[in-house]
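Q&A log
Question type: sequence-to-structure
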Amino acid sequence: MLESNKNKKHMDDFSRKEISIAPMMKWTDRHCRFFHRQFSKKILLYTEMIPANAIIFGNPEKLLKFNFEQHPVAVQLGGSDPSVLAKASKICGDYGYDEINLNVGCPSPKVKKGRFGACLMAEPKLVKECIDKMINEVSVPVSVKCRIGIDEMDEILGLDYFIDTILESKISKIIIHARKAYLDGLNPKQNRDVPPLNYKRVKLLKNRLKGKVKIIVNGGIDNIHKSRKLLGWADGIMVGREAYKSPLFINSLNNILLKSEKDLSILRVNIINKIIKYINDSYRNDVNFKMHHITRHMLGLYYGLPGGKVFRNKLNQIASTHKNPKEILYLVEEMEEYIKQRNSMVA
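Response status: OK
Response body:
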């Protein structure tokens, strides 16, 4: 009985954890987020990284508008000028985002040239100043996403100094990609895979801080077993490429939070019905909308399943030939029947 209660408490703890989908350039646009939201009402979604300058001097409506159904949703900003970040944060707050996040983890040379992203880990006092200015302008939480270090920075002393410095502000949480970023020598893709994952370093930091701030762990989270293990000690997890590659992974993550299971065939059909309405509404409200703006994010709906490649090819064909969006529903119904027949043959 004691063991049963202990297990139940452990599961209940998961329901209070945070799970989010990482900001991913050219991927997590508003159409992607609407699609991902259909797999979970609770998981936190992030925008792509948006340069603060672009918001102030560009077209904020184009960059920031989103559907109300996407809540909870956070915006990630890139920049290093405290005043510019403060102004951009205020604009984002006015658009209704639930959180403002500062990118201190992107290893792109282009980002480094603009003096933001991971290179800012070498300037913790500047990051703190940015955060302070941002917090003063908004009523929603402000967070930071960083790495465990950059280049020759010491993973213990260097990370501790960076975190302790920014914690002098009233930051709400810190998302840590559990890899170093090597700004000299590795390209962005290599920086997502080559530096070894070090979850233990993030856990060590979490234990040292004793609850002073929420610690969310990110990097290499590609299965439910690993997700549960990390949620056992972290305040939450942020999942990136796996959720995009296989959207049903979002549903599996949602099951951790809600302790529920859904019939996947019904789930997929229901989601497609909502997507059809979304496509039709988008055509009416946006003269520049094209069907592939959302279908390109849906290619992984049958990832790892028989017929998955056929589904991707047919979905691309539907989008490229501008067919009636209902053709997507017919395709999904065809896929579900195919999977059902295969399962009955195996049984």
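Response note: The chain has a mean pLDDT of 92.
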